[in-house]
Specification:
By secondary structure, this protein is mostly helical. Helix content is 71%, strand content 0%. Helix 3 runs antiparallel to helix 4 and helix 5 packs antiparallel against helix 6.
Length: 102
């Protein structure tokens, strides 16, 4: 049931040129914002990087969630999603250099 509702919300949110003023769109937006992890995992599974980019542009997740999305893509062997997520991490947060000095 939840998967069907999530897919329906994604379809409404990404459906062409949505009218952002409709209650249906606003309800879908609220639902996705509260369920960002399952929504991103669904998009990772489908390797829908355009959808992932749209959700990322909303600012609904932080570096912590991004790390879990990277782990999810790696575990599911979704290479396209993984590459996109790693580029996003590099662009937004960069990579910390490890200090191995003694």
């Amino acid at each position: 049931m939840q998967d069907r509702k999530l897919k329906q919300a994604l379809d409404i949110y990404f459906g062409g040129e949505p009218d952002r003023e409709t209650k249906e769109f606003q309800d879908a937006q609220k639902y996705l914002k509260l369920r960002i992890r399952p929504a991103m995992e669904f998009l990772i599974e489908k390797e829908d990087t355009e959808g992932m980019e749209q959700l990322e542009n909303c600012g609904w997740f932080s570096a912590k969630e991004l790390e879990s999305f990277i782990r999810c893509a790696r575990e599911k062997a979704k290479l396209r999603s993984l590459v996109w997520l790693l580029h996003l991490k590099d662009r937004k947060y960069g990579y910390q250099k490890k200090d191995f000095s003694l």
